[in-house]
């Protein structure tokens, strides 16, 4: 099934000039970039994006970190894009990430782990409109 998923290149990836490298990896695996923007989230926006994690002990740190510098948000499209993107990113903790995955290659730790990808179709359906209007998606696809 052709799916769309929301990816963020996190502040550690933007800061270390990894935007191009990360996007290249997804493109080389056949995913299409159908929308793209660089933004800086406010603390409140980061809290809203990660609201599902609000009871987790790392929620405060995570939302401080995600609002600490610019990020790049992208919508990727392709066959089974949600699962594919998660495979290409690798495990949340770079210590557990498989060889060749983005997090194995670039992540610093569990928090500064370079990329985010929607974890399910339900998450993608909430996360894509968080950054992109329907018009932006239709216009570019
Ligand atoms: P992400 O895919 O963006 O979704 C939730 C994020 O929370 C996750 O990536 C990690 O960066 C972060 N995270 C998950 N577990 C922990 C943890 N134990 N400590 C700090 N951050 C975490």
TrEMBL record:
Residues 2-139 form the Nucleoside diphosphate kinase-like domain. The active site is at residue 116. ATP binds at residues 10, 58, 86, 92, 103, 113. Signal peptide: none annotated. Its cofactor is Mg(2+). It is found in: Cytoplasm. Major role in the synthesis of nucleoside triphosphates other than ATP. The ATP gamma phosphate is transferred to the NDP beta phosphate via a ping-pong mechanism, using a phosphorylated active-site intermediate. This is Nucleoside diphosphate kinase. It comes from Caldimicrobium thiodismutans.
């Amino acid at each position: 099934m052709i799916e769309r998923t929301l990816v963020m290149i996190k502040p550690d990836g933007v800061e270390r000039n990894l935007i191009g490298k990360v996007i290249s990896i997804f493109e080389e695996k056949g995913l299409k970039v159908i929308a793209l923007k660089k933004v800086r989230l406010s603390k409140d926006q980061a809290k809203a994006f990660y609201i599902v994690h609000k009871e987790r002990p790392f929620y405060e740190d995570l939302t401080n970190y995600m609002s600490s510098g610019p990020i790049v948000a992208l919508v990727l499209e392709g066959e089974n894009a949600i699962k594919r993107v998660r495979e290409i990113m690798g495990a949340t903790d770079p210590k557990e990430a498989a060889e060749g995955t983005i997090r194995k290659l670039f992540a610093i730790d569990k928090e500064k782990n370079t990329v985010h990808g929607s974890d399910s179709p339900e998450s993608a359906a909430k996360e894509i409109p968080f950054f992109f209007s329907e018009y932006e998606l239709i216009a570019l696809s």
